[in-house]
């Protein structure tokens, strides 16, 4: 067994079953229900590119090839961390992995906490054979570091999944809304720093859709993380996801009050880039198409994550997913052509965005 005995002796079969059941609910709700944020937008619609009628490049000159944490990718698009741990999740992950391999994209896996609780669900996460040539990211709730998960367990996750990096997700609001959620976030930054120092692999920290403020971005980089995904508001709202799971109308009203919570993705990204000018930033949250990807890159992202549109496409099948990814990449390529950017790096240097209030970037 790839996960060591110390992990298995600390797990609880009932807890693992509850976690798996919750994952299936989350997946169903994300696919079938309206879980978009309400009253808050990603902010990308506030920006418009300055079209260049004379781009001075050929369309064939446009290259999407980029890199993430030292690994080459064919485009700066990240298939964001989504799911795992159940039979339905395995189907989704396998489709996402095939798409990642076909298009040369980095891929994140869903939270692997259930894998620590139930090692037998490894096949639902283990997609390395389907995506042998792309960066693969394991994923764990950061709060688990306060609940007994240490460097050894994280290292075993990476080995079991043959992953290149570990994503720690921050989700205090989601945990607070869940019944028996894990809300012990006190002193967590120091544990993140300890993990970064001892893991021997890159650690990425992300939110799940409410954004990371610029001062926290700086503190995370000071703690040793390799990259931060600002994961702002404007896309999937996990308070809305949790609301759809609730049977208690009082709790559902509380969850509904947070549908407009969070830092818009574009705002979080701009502030993060200003605060951490030389660091690796990923932008996700409400990214709908390749033009949003181009805007995020211009606003300072090194890579751009998409989750909701891809999981819904994956649920429809391999063909629908491949078409969705192809459309996004072609939109990005054409946007770059129309602003005269032949390389991804040219977007930040040469492309021009104008805000609806008249200020230019």
Structure commentary:
The protein is α/β, with parallel strands linked by helices and 361 residues long. It has a single domain (5-355), classed as TIM Barrel (Alpha-Beta Barrel). It is built from 15 helices and twelve strands. It has helices at residues 5-9, 13-32, 87-103, 113-117, 151-161, 172-177, 188-198, 214-222, 238-245, 249-256, 265-275, 290-298, 308-316, 318-338, 344-350, and strands at residues 47-49, 66-68, 71-73, 77-79, 106-108, 136-141, 165-170, 203-207, 227-229, 280-284, 303-306, 353-355. The strands form three sheets. It has an eight-stranded parallel beta barrel with strand order 4-5-6-7-8-9-10-11, surrounded by six helices. A two-stranded antiparallel ribbon has the order 1-12. It has a two-stranded antiparallel sheet with strand order 2-3. The protein is globular and about 60 Å long. Mean pLDDT is 93; it is low at 1-11.
Fill in the keyword field for this structure.
361 residues; alpha/beta; TIM Barrel; eight-stranded parallel barrel; two-stranded antiparallel ribbon; 13% strand; disordered N terminus
